[in-house]
Amino acid sequence: MAVSRFPCRVRNVCRGLSLLVGLVVALLVNARGTAAWSVTCRDQACLQTAVRNASAFRGAENITVTVMGPVTLTSSLQLGARPEHTGTLIFRGNESQGKPGAFEGGHVVTAAWHPVQLLGIDLWAARAPASLQLGDNQTRWRAARQLYIDGQRYSRTRSPPDAVGLTITNATGDAAGYATTSTVPLAWPDPAAVELVSDHTWVQHRCLVANTSNLTAVSLSTSAPCTANWSMPVLGASPGSSLKQVPLTSYQACQQACCQLGAACKAVDFRPGSCYLLDRTYDGNYSPHGASKLANMNPANVPVMRSRINMAQPCFTDVQNNGQYSMTLPSFLENTANFTGPGQWFYDQGKGIVYVWPLAEHVQINSSCVVLGGLDVLVNLHGAERVELTNLTLAYSSWLRPSTGNGFVERYGTIFFANGTNLAMPPAALQAAFVSDLNIEECSFLHLGSWAMAVGQAVKRIRISQNLFYDVSGGSLVLGALNGTHETDPQLQTAEIVVADNVIQNMSVEYKGAPGLHSFCLRDSIIEHNRIDTVGYSGISYNWPLRQGPTLGPNATDPSLGFTRNNAIRNNDIARFMTYMMDGGGIHTIGRTVNTTLSGNYFHDMGAGAPGWHSVEAQSVIYIDNWSCGYAITNNVLEHCNATKQGYYFFQGPSEGTAHDNVVDGLYLRDAGSINPNTPGMPCNCSNVHDVVGPWPATAAAIIAAAGPRRP
């Protein structure tokens, strides 16, 4: 499948005629004499009328809606129940003037671009689309998070933390934000649109800045130099580098013990009952014990603080209280107007001005199509039955919650904390719930600002095949409902899903913790012959019930552990996974399943540890995590996947939730590393594991040849 880039939709000057033609319903009679009707649409008004007519239609005839060329949506297309219509509602894309049939949710920049200078850099600027205006009495414009020129995504400008005066040794954080040693934040054109991003092992938090202020060169601390930055715990050295361990009951006593050791004690790790006195500061990506309270000691030479970054709420409080890891020293800051090269953009939300540094192919920017991501949901199917989407493109969605004071506080795989401790998933360009008999075939999901597709609660008999998913901020597919773990009514469970022969490429472009494909509880389903290529986190995340365990002992059959059963993940080609995050794998499972097979998959060229990628290591390739049980793992191939913490497979041990009753039979390895001899995991019930040197055996070669999409 080729990735198609298509220019902006040309405004139709004959819109009235288009609408009139679009609303004409043609009665067709096929060879058998069965009546059917169809409509051709070129705009949203026509589509909405067609949907209303279909909802009221009585009979068993099929209804076909042909989408001619791209249609710009100003609101989500709602496809609901059709009580009296027992036929199939078909949406089919058709090319018009060289442009594919498409649902587009973006904001097109129509204002003229003109050359400007911003912070000493030569750029191009234009007024944001009028659709982003909030009204005459509003001082700011609507947010925008993605920009595309001629179908190519540009990166938001970013700054490293030390460029704005934030470092491990001198940054001081508190409940409201940070003090810094630099005046750079005071020169930001739009401080309230700057976003602090914090990476932690498998999650990435995002919180907005509220404002900045001048500190008029105040000191970091007026107290004695021997104090600890308890308000800003950071990740870094492990307790293994401690000078000594002292049995203490308070972090204040822990700090005092460090002070008594003098300059040799540079940091502390306090856990209830234990105080570790460390001989080096936290400066790496260390995952602390869950109950740890960490701090570096303030240096004797107290730095001078020159500005303050005040953080937006409630995000900054939520991330400290609820987040999987707190937001300490940010990994980088986005939308800072710090241009460093072509292919970048900045949005001054206060003034409604868009700035770009064009790539060479876009220097004639007034002849290019510039689009900002727009709607969060393009197509919403709720309660629909018998719907088919074919040969359609869905493009230019977004998700704006991270650009509000709520921010994005991640738990796992883009699951985020919403309203305190409640968990939620981001929206998808196509969402389906309480839907049956849905077929999505030969469609393209391109340039999307969140997830591409989500099929949630009470979705059954769905086929998703031969589609292209490309350039997505999140991942391709969410299968199942995050909050559907406890569902015992078979009619309300997610079931009978087939995901086959799709190409999934360039996922987690923005939200690095997104897996290529994410499933929650589902049953009687198949994920087969897909190609997943280039993902920030795991290739496939499977199951993840909200209650993960225990799955041993008297609770083993507890319904609250989920209904996942009778599923197959087979013959998939999964490459360049784990390019950014850690503690994931080619496939990552959590929780109980019954009769699930992982077979014939080809995992290769893992991103972690490879040149050009951010991630240092994955946890494993076949990662059977907390309380996972019921897996038959047969005849899989692993190649060029050697940068793992635990080895090519890992079965979680008792400390996190014992993985049990899993079987491996047939595993072919080449340049796949080795099992960590000190692994905390469970031993593998393995047979026929082959570490191959030289050509692949015939069985492995056949698995590789059969993996990925089948040719029609």
TrEMBL record:
Record's signal peptide: 1-36
Protein name: Apple domain-containing protein
InterPro entries the UniProt entry points to: Pectin_lyas_fold (IPR012334), Pectin_lyase_fold/virulence (IPR011050)
Keyword Signal (UniProt): yes
Keywords: Signal
Transmembrane stretches, start-end: none
UniProt superkingdom: Eukaryota
Gene3D superfamilies: Single-stranded right-handed beta-helix, Pectin lyase-like
Record carries keyword Membrane: no
Species this chain originates from: Monosiga brevicollis (Choanoflagellate)
